[in-house]
């Protein structure tokens, strides 16, 4: 009988994936070695191979794990929201929360998916397309008149662009946090600039 996994096995795998994603995002998949991943994870190379057989396995886990989490967000939002507007607000809030913690993974998905084999790349991108389609369905539920003009996906991509751009200018220690800005994104997307409400800001010490 094979040895069972120790209690911290999954936690260690997640740590390795996080470190690998940070390295891939900074230096690219092709420019990162397993030695670097092992060092960043505080492991020997032999121990690293106990968790992941090679660098390619890391890339698959990072990209597929990221899109599966996004897919889960769509499913949960649709299940929880009683109206399309409630669903969209949940989608935006959850997406901002997810992206706040997975900028490295998102960059790897965007820039390094090309290194996946055809079958793996198709599987990952198919899930990503399902995520976009899920958002687009909520957009059309909000504005059925836009379905004929096929604007569901374009509006979804504009929304994704707005959310992605947040992380290029927002400062973690700034006056606005992600919890503050997510409702602003929802207001702006759902009703335009006139619907945006200013969040209550704490006085700067």
Describe this structure in words.
The protein is mainly α and 205 residues long. It has a domain at 57-168: Tetracycline Repressor, domain 2. Helices cover 71% and strands 0% of the residues. It is built from nine helices and no strands. The protein has helices at 9-27, 34-41, 45-51, 55-80, 84-101, 103-112, 118-142, 152-169, 178-191. The longest helix is centred in the first third of the chain and has 26 residues, at 55-80. It is globular.
Number of strands: 0
Global Rg: 20 Å
| Helix-strand category | mainly alpha
Q: Helix content range of the residues, please? A: over 70%
Uncertain residue segments: none
How would you state the average pLDDT, rounded?
A: 91
Q: Can you tell me the CATH class of the domain at 57-168?
A: Mainly Alpha
H/E topology pattern: HHHHHHHHH
Multimeric state of these chains?
A: single chain
Percentage of residues in DSSP E strands: under 5%
Largest sheet report:
none
CATH superfamily of the domain at 57-168: Tetracycline Repressor, domain 2
Gross CATH architecture of the domain at 57-168: Orthogonal Bundle
What order do the helices and strands come in, and which of them pair?
Blueprint: H1 9-27, H2 34-41, H3 45-51, H4 55-80, H5 84-101, H6 103-112, H7 118-142, H8 152-169, H9 178-191
Helix pairs in contact: 1-2, 1-4, 1-6, 4-5, 4-6, 4-7, 5-7, 5-9, 7-8
Describe the structure in brief.
The protein is mainly alpha-helical.
Main attributes?
single chain; 205 residues; Tetracycline Repressor, domain 2; 0% strand
């Amino acid at each position: 009988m094979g040895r069972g996994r120790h209690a911290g096995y999954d936690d260690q795998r997640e740590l390795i994936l996080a470190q690998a994603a940070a390295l891939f995002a900074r230096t690219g998949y092709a420019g990162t070695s397993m030695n670097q991943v092992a060092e960043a994870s505080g492991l020997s190379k032999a121990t690293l191979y106990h968790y992941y057989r090679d660098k390619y396995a890391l890339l698959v886990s990072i990209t597929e794990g990221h899109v599966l989490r996004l897919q889960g967000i769509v499913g949960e939002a649709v299940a929880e929201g009683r109206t399309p507007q409630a669903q969209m607000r949940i989608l935006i809030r959850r997406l901002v929360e997810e992206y706040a913690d997975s900028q490295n993974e998102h960059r790897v998905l965007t820039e390094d998916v090309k290194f996946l084999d055809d079958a793996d790349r198709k599987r990952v991108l198919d899930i990503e397309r399902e995520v976009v389609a899920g958002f687009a369905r909520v957009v059309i539920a909000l504005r059925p008149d836009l379905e004929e003009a096929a604007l569901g996906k374009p509006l979804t991509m504009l929304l994704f662009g707005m959310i992605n751009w947040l992380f290029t200018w927002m400062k973690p220690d700034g006056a606005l946090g992600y919890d503050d800005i997510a409702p602003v994104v929802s207001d702006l997307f759902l009703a335009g600039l006139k619907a945006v409400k200013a969040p209550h800001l704490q006085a700067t010490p």
